[in-house]
C-alpha cells in the first residue's frame, strides 16, 4: 500500500479527527479495510455537547486502538472566538463562521496528538466538495508540513451521504442521521450549522422547527423582552450583568439567553472556497449578541478613520478565516492592527433582546469619543455654527469646479 508515493510500514499510526458523526463513524472501518495502520481517534471538544463517554465507546468499538478526548472549550472561546469578535469578522455580510473559527484549533490539537503518538498521518472525514478539507489541511500544513493527509472522501467509492448511511448499516455502526433527516451539522460553542436535505433547493423555506437545536423560532420566542448588560475590557467581553465569567461560561450563557429570544439565525447562500455556492442555516445566538455589542461599543470609542478602515479590515479578515488561513502571515499582521485598535474599547453596553432583534438600550465607556455638549444642537465652546459656512465652501469646491467645467 502506498500513500503519495511512499510505501507504508506495518502498523504506521494515523490520527483520525473523530466526532462520532456519520462521516467519521464510517472512516474507522474503511481505514481498517484499506490500510494496515493503527487508528488513533481524536475528539476535540469545542462545545459540541456530545456524550463523550459514548463517543469514546463508539470509537473503540469501531476499531480505534485508543481515543483522545481534548476539552478545549475555554481555549476555543478565548483565543479564537474572541479574536473573531474583536475583528468583527463576518463572511458575506451574514455568516459568523463558527465552523471556520474552530477548525484551526482542532488542526493544532491533531498535530499535537500526532507528535505525541509519533504518527506521520492525519485523517479527516471532510467531503471533497466542502471548505473544511482546506481548513484542516491548511492548518496542519502551517504547523507541521511533514504530516501527510488521508482524506477518504477523495479516495473511496462512497459518493453521497445516502451511500455513507448504507455503508454504516452494512458495518453495523449506528449513525446520528437517517435518509429522511440527512442534514449535515456542525456544533460548537459558537454555533450550530445545518446543511443538506431540503436546504439544497433555495426555493424551499427552511423548516425552522425541524432544524433548530439551540434557538427558538420567532413564534416560540419569549413574548417579553430580555435586557442584558455586557462589559468589555480592550474589546474582550468579561462580565454579563455585572458577573465575571470565564470565556466559555459567558458564551454559553449568552447562547441560552439569545436562544430563548430567537436571536442569531442566518439563512445564507454562500460562496464556498472550492468554487460553488451552497446554502446553510446557522444558529449563533451568543456570538451574534457579542458581535453586535462589540461593534456598537467600537462606534463609541474609535475615531471615524480608524472605525472605517477597520470595517475594510473586517471583510478581509473574514475571508482569510473562511478560507482556512488562520495561521497565515497576513492574518497575524491584521491581528496586531486589531489589537492596537482595541486599547480603548472598554466599557459597558446594555441590550434589549426581543423576537430575534437586538437593540441598544444604553452604553458608556471611560474612553468615549462622544461628547454630548459638542454633539447636541446647542452652542458649545469647541464648535461654532458659523464655522460650517467656510467648511462647506471648501468641501464643495471640487463639485463647483466640475459643475463650471460641465456648463461651459
Automatic annotation (TrEMBL):
Pfam families: Arginosuc_syn_C, Arginosuc_synth. It is found in: Cytoplasm. It catalyses: L-citrulline + L-aspartate + ATP = 2-(N(omega)-L-arginino)succinate + AMP + diphosphate + H(+). GO terms for biological process: argininosuccinate metabolic process; L-arginine biosynthetic process; urea cycle. ATP binds at residues 17-25, 125. Residues 183-401 form the Arginosuccinate synthase C-terminal domain. Pathway: Amino-acid biosynthesis; L-arginine biosynthesis; L-arginine from L-ornithine and carbamoyl phosphate: step 2/3. SUPFAM superfamilies: Adenine nucleotide alpha hydrolases-like, Argininosuccinate synthetase, C-terminal domain. GO terms for molecular function: argininosuccinate synthase activity; ATP binding. L-citrulline binds at residues 95, 131, 135, 184, 193, 270, 282. PROSITE patterns: ARGININOSUCCIN_SYN_1 (PS00564), ARGININOSUCCIN_SYN_2 (PS00565). Residues 13-173 form the Arginosuccinate synthase-like N-terminal domain. The keyword Cell division does not apply. Coiled coil: none annotated. Its main location: cytoplasm. L-aspartate binds at residues 127, 131-132. One of its GO terms (cellular component) is cytoplasm. Its EC number is 6.3.4.5. Keywords: Amino-acid biosynthesis, Arginine biosynthesis, ATP-binding, Cytoplasm, Ligase, Nucleotide-binding. Belongs to the argininosuccinate synthase family. Type 1 subfamily. Homotetramer. This is Argininosuccinate synthase.
